Amino acid sequence: MSKRAYGTLLLAFMLAATAALAGCGGGDSDKKLIRIGEVTRSLFYAPQYVAIEKGFFEEEGLKIELTTTPGGDKTMTALLSNVIDVALVGSETSIYVYQQGADDPVINFAQLTQTDGTFLVAREKIDNFDWNSLKGSVFLGQRVGGMPQMAGEFAMKKNGIDPHHDLELIQNVDFANIPAAFSSGTGDYVQLFEPTASIFEKEGRGHVVASFGTESGHLPYTVFMTKESFIKKNKKDVQAFTNAVYKAQNWVAAHSADEIADVVLPYFENVDRDILVSSIDRYKQQGSFATDPIVDEAEWNNLIDVITSAGELDKRPEHGVLVNTEFAKEAIAAVKQ
Known about the structure:
Blueprint: H1 9-12, E1 21-22, E2 32-38, H2 46-53, H3 56-59, E3 62-68, H4 72-80, E4 86-89, H5 91-99, E5 106-113, E6 118-122, E7 138-140, H6 147-158, E8 168-170, H7 178-183, E9 189-193, H8 196-203, E10 207-211, H9 212-216, E11 222-227, H10 228-233, H11 235-254, H12 257-264, H13 273-285, H14 297-309, H15 319-322, H16 326-334
Parallel strand pairs: 2-3, 2-4, 7-8, 7-9
Antiparallel strand pairs: 1-3, 4-11, 5-11, 6-9, 6-10
Keywords: Signal
Main location: periplasm
Pfam family, one: NMT1_2
């Protein structure tokens, strides 16, 4: 989401509390309710679903309501308007809110993914892909100002490709419609998340030729965040939440893609199990799932470099302004592996 869009955030969208409710963790009525808004439903967020399904939130005295709030703008609006308590979204959204001069800044407190989660998919099979193949092509990209697009452009520039001059870049297709647009013939290349990338390969509609996650390096790509005021009033609950996330991260690191697929299957009922396994394995192999909740300074600075390269940053926020590592560090010290 572009920083410009946040100026009209609260007027643009008011989320109904009942919309797209999914994946509630069980638990007794005496458990603290935490409402999570995830920016999309994705295998990229497998550790979150593991935390719910394996009962890690319940162990920490929490009951979870999980709502899918499609898009960074809608997710952040839901958070700022108190429809949800915690947002699972890209860290760039907290930066855009900060740049608007928010009195109650959004704080990143527990990292879930540490790389970009998209893959470069070509319409035709390419045995020995070279980034120069993108020159003169039609590229079906992601939304301006969103992390997928910014990380994609960062990776292209790293490989000597100017995404705004060396190819025809299409960015006027809504996120949810990008796969269908590519299937219908738009573009020579497209940027896709899993499991869509694997589904396209299986059905012969496209072929994965590169990973934007590998190319753009470690960064706080998807993070649990909340308002500073919520943290001040609910420190115990934020700590419990972070503990549960870390338990799930340990579990994911210790188990196979096959075992993880069995746990997250209820969240992807319309996806073949073999696709779930291959998608999760692809993310595990490239180290996309964070192994602990800490948003460290090196990752943050890489994120800032990516956003700066995309021309979406007015001023460079320091790590300590929008990141709180206190809960992550305490979780690492308290949770037995």
